[in-house]
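Key result, reporting period 2: structure in, sequence out.
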């Protein structure tokens, strides 16, 4: 990667850790996102609509399932996968979240917890995006406590499972073709995973309106009332919440990378604005307080990128632990919150106008900070690792 292809915000040139081929792929992705996605993001965010017509372009760009091995095709490195999530969020955290749900949570659940038959049935069409996936874990009355307090139930009835309950904040939930839904088995009180197809009787999805973060993501309330699915729809290798955590450990790393990208996007528009915006007869970038804000932002970006790079390296080696993923997610999204706030501050009043982009990063950071484990819950995972004592209620 030549010097002009490195992002200026990659102050320690972490991208140079990629192979030459991977660096070229990253540049190609960056150019695609700049040409095809960036011009659309503010209008989609303002309208709270997902640009479905871009899906064929995502397929052409080969953005799905690259982190898994398929016959005749090796997987990409975890590091390239992480930089891909970063580039998506650098342009639009909503788009990064869409792929995090479809590619990470839904497809990841199938790859990690599904049977060979289930993978053969769903993975090819999910990779081609003919089938869009969603992941139903969070509930209206259960977020942080969903592992122990899950209210959605599953009951075996002959050759069927019967689901009853509700899920909330389900990304892609309004238009997903297949949903990975978790419910507590009334027979053994363990959390199990199920594949629920759109249109199944007893299942409905309603869009959550009036969101002010990740507005392009179509979050839904899901309702299951005597929803009957075949016995073959149970994820074969999901028999407890410990199994669910196998997926969350991997995807929390992806959220951390998205937190880096969100910071990058806010930092880059702040730098550009500081160079062009004039006050008192000169660009504001020449004032000490503005340079202090930019230096603090760059410090957060650099520290966050360094942590996520190491997380990806540990993933590659098969050594990533739950507590490491939890620390990365909580730390990076906390720094993300700071960075986007400083960026918005630099813009003054213009920072609340969508045309300058920064307010979108500012709002979207709040969702990244909250989903896939709040900061507090992730710190308890880390705290248990540090002390050997559990502080969970």
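The corresponding designed sequence is given below.
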């Amino acid at each position: 990667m030549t010097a002009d292809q490195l992002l200026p915000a990659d102050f320690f040139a972490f991208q140079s850790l990629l192979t030459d081929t991977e660096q070229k792929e990253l540049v190609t992705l960056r150019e695609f996102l700049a040409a095809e996605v960036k011009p659309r993001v503010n209008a989609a965010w303002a309208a709270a609509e997902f640009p479905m017509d871009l899906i064929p372009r995502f397929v052409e760009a080969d953005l799905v399932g690259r982190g898994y091995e398929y016959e005749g095709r090796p997987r990409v490195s975890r590091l390239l996968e992480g930089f891909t999530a970063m580039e998506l969020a650098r342009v639009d955290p909503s788009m990064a979240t869409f792929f995090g749900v479809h590619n990470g949570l839904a497809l990841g659940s199938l790859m990690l917890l599904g049977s060979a038959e289930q993978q053969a049935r769903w993975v090819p069409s999910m990779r081609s995006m003919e089938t869009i996936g969603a992941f139903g874990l969070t509930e209206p009355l259960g977020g942080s406590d969903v592992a122990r307090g899950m209210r959605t139930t599953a009951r075996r009835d002959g050759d069927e499972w019967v689901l009853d309950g509700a899920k909330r904040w389900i990304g892609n939930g309004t238009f997903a073709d297949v949903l990975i839904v978790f419910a507590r088995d009334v027979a053994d009180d363990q959390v199990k995973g199920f594949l629920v197809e759109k249109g199944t009787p007893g299942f409905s999805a309603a869009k959550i309106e009036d969101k002010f973060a990740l507005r392009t993501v179509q979050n839904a309330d899901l309702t299951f009332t005597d929803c009957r699915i075949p016995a073959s729809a149970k994820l074969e290798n999901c028999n407890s919440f410990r199994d669910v955590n196998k997926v969350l450990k991997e995807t929390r790393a992806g959220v951390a990378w998205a937190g880096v990208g969100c910071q990058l996007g806010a930092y880059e528009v702040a730098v550009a604005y500081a160079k062009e915006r004039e006050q008192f007869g000169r660009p504001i970038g020449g004032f000490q307080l503005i340079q202090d804000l930019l230096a603090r932002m760059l410090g957060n970006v650099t520290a966050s990128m360094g942590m996520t790079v190491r997380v990806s390296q540990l993933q590659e080696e098969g050594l990533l632990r739950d507590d490491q993923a939890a620390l990365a997610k909580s730390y990076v999204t906390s720094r993300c919150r700071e960075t986007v706030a400083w960026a918005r501050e630099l813009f003054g009043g213009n920072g609340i106008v969508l045309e300058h982009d920064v307010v979108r990063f500012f709002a979207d950071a709040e969702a990244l900070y909250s989903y896939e484990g709040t900061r507090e819950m992730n710190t308890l995972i880390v705290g248990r690792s540090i002390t050997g004592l559990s502080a969970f209620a």
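The chain has a mean pLDDT of 94. Residues 3-127 form a domain with the Butyryl-Coa Dehydrogenase, subunit A; domain 1 fold (CATH 1.10.540.10). This case is discussed further under Risks and Mitigation.
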